Each structure stands twice: as C-alpha cells, then as structure tokens.
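A quick word before the example. In earlier lectures we treated sequence and structure as two separate objects. From today on, think of them as two lines of the same record. Here is uracil phosphoribosyltransferase written that way.
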Amino acid sequence: TLADSEPTLPTAPASTGASPKDAVRISNPPCKDTITVLPQTSQLIALLTLIRDRKTQRGDFVFYSNRIIRLLVEEGLNHLPVVSHPIETPLGTPYTGVKFQGKICGVSIMRAGESMEQGLRDCCRSVRIGKILIQRDEETAQAKLFYDKLPEDIADRYVLLLDPMLATGGSAIKAVEVLLSRGVPEDHILFLNLIASPEGIEKFSEMFPKLRVVTAFVDEGLDDKSYITPGLGDFGDRYFGTA
Ligand code: PRP
Ligand code: URA
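And the structure line, produced from the sequence above:
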C-alpha cells in the first residue's frame, strides 16, 4: 500500500557512526538571489532519494514527485507580489493582511512539465495553463520548439513556467524566448523546477538575470549524453510510463 511506502529518513551507514541528521547535510549551494533552492530538509531529501532510486516503481515515482511539485508551487507563490488587505475577523477585530496582486497563469514545457500542472491547479483553482512543446534531440540534446498555445493576455500575467528538469538549459531558454516574444516581462516569469544542473542554471540565469527560479536541488553535473548526474534519469519516461 502507499502507507507502507511512506518515506523514511535516509540513514547513513552504521559503520560511519553518523546520525540520520548527518546523512541529510548535503551541500547544495544557492547561486544568485534570483535563484531559490528549497530548504534542504530531511523530508525533501528523503522524497528526492525516492524518486532518484532506479528501483522506485512508477506509482511511487508519480506520488513522491507530486509531493515535491506541491512544495515547489507553494514556494513559488511566495515570490508573487502582494498588496495590503484589511479585513475584519469574526471577533469584529480589524486585521491588516495581504492579498495577491495581479493575474497569473501556468505554462508547461511538454511533455514532462505537464506533470506539474495538477500541483499548480491544487493551489490556484481554475488557473489558466498554456503549453509549449519542446523536445530534446535524443542524439544531440539540442532543444527544438514544435508548438505553443498560450493565453491571449499572457503579457498581462505573471507566468509560472513548469519543467522538472533543467539540464543543458536549452529547453527552458527556448520556452522563455517564446514568452518574451509574446510580451511577458522577464521579471514576471517564475521558473519552477525539480532538479537543475549547475551549468544549466548558470547559463539560464546569466541569459535571464531578472527571471526567478525555484528549484528543489542543484545536482553535480551532466553526463556525456547531457543527462543530469546523479539525477533521476528521464523524468518524462518515468512519470508517464514510457521508459
Ligand atoms: C526533458 C526535460 C526538459 C529537458 C531538459 O525533456 O523535461 O524539458 O529535457 O533538458 P535541457 O535542459 O538539456 O533542454 P525531453 O525533451 O526529454 O522531453 P519529455 O518532456 O517528453 O521527456
Ligand atoms: N531530461 C531528463 O528527463 N533528465 C535529464 O537528466 C535530462 C533531461
């Protein structure tokens, strides 16, 4: 059952004498102030460990990926502008809170980015979601744009751009170019991502210094096929069951 497969804290090998707390003290340096790496809690590292594991079956891969996606969306929403909003509580007491300012939409980079749409909908009911179909060439890893369908008024919206993997950066860069060409200001784009390579996120943030990125983890690097290492393999194949 799913209950049986609830995550356990990653534990260090007994021979090292290290505690579970030591095992999750993983270095994951944030780079720039436009880049937010989720707090490296033991829960997040345990969830990432589950989806990185080659032995994890599809049902669990989807379930635990969705949990991380929810954390990314919740953090992403913290980066949207708010304005002061005075209300009165049931006690008749005035309270000055905040409310979101402006309209948003999601844009998923197909296909893997579509896995993040439900997490966004769970937090933002009836949010509009545009699509951009970009595929990497399997030999060269070059990203190619095939199709896009975006809300007509996208230039007036904050855009949550969705893709779980940022490897060379080619796909995300192409997607942002489409958004900019439709008049979306760079600083109105927020890229939500599960795992980034250091070179991909560096290139991406140099090209778009005003664009904010929220990621769960910056990994070690890329292999000779431009896959993220240690990574988790092909996210789209594992999530949608096409491996
Ligand atoms: C994957 C992933 C990203 C892209 C990242 O998609 O979802 O979109 O590769 O690599 P990059 O940073 O080097 O461009 P892929 O093209 O494999 O298609 P998929 O979503 O159908 O799996
Ligand atoms: N796309 C993936 O799904 N995984 C990678 O490691 C790189 C690109």
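Notice the following. The pocket of PRP (ligand 1) is lined by residues 109, 111-112, 135-136, 141, 143, 163, 165-172, 200, 226, 234-236 (CB under 6 Å). We will return to this example when we discuss secondary structure assignment.
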